[in-house]
Automatic annotation (TrEMBL):
Membrane association type: Multi-pass membrane protein
Major localisation: membrane
Keyword Oxidoreductase part of the UniProt annotation: no
Record's subcellular location: Cell membrane
Species for this entry: Clostridioides difficile NAP08
Protein name per its UniProtKB record: YitT family protein
Length: 210
């Protein structure tokens, strides 16, 4: 039973990370759609204070994952690290392969697809009971400690970051990003709250103890 749950969780992490990496590269990156969440904060810090994203990412993601560890335990942190590494490796793979989706001149269509794919990927990862990054961990913690759905938390934090990004981006750039994060939030909610969820109950999983 424990082994089956472990394999099921790893399978969901891989599937969710693959869809997330596919969506971020093929729809967000290639269509220059601005990000919210931690990536949006990194870009904001870079443009306003010239803080290097590589350094800021380690600090911010690390702190937020530690917050998740405090609420959900050590195995949550282990699975989240696995998800984060899996996403990074798969993103690099998609980048090396190149565009897999014909580039559309319809920016609205690309934005909708960005929201759907990223929302699906994140939804599957959090349904597996972990986080693909610091913003996922933050959303799970806030959702756990408040009456907000996880999708509402994602939307709220993304909107705040995107509005702050108006300091260096145009309103036109932000417009499509707001559409994408709104769709993502709805998709995350649908996946996370429908059907079987592994949630954070991972005490019986077979994971090497640290």
């Amino acid at each position: 039973m424990a082994r089956r749950l472990f394999l099921e969780r790893i399978g969901l992490i891989f599937l969710g990370s693959a869809i997330l990496a596919f969506g971020v590269y093929n729809f967000y990156y290639l269509n220059n759609i601005t990000e919210g969440g931690v990536l949006g904060i990194l870009l904001l810090l870079k443009n306003l204070f010239n803080i290097q994203p590589a350094i800021a990412n380690v600090v911010i993601d690390g702190l937020l994952l530690l917050v998740g560890y405090k609420f959900f335990g050590k195995k949550f942190l282990i699975y989240s690290i696995v998800a984060s590494i899996t996403f990074s490796v798969l993103y690099d793979l998609f980048e090396a392969i190149g565009p897999l989706v014909p580039q559309s001149q319809n920016m609205l269509l690309s934005t909708i697809l960005a929201g759907v794919t990223v929302g699906t990927g994140v939804g599957i990862v959090v349904k597996a009971g972990c986080a693909s990054g610091g913003d996922d961990a933050l959303a799970l913690v806030i959702s756990k400690t408040t009456s907000l759905n996880i999708g509402q938390v994602y939307l709220a934090t993304d909107v705040i970051v995107l509005l702050l990004s108006l300091f260096y981006l145009s309103a036109f750039d932000i417009f499509y990003s707001l559409i994408a994060v709104t769709i993502s939030g709805k998709v995350i909610d649908f996946i996370y709250y429908h059907g079987k969820s592994l949630d954070m109950d991972i005490s019986n999983d077979i994971v090497p103890e640290c």
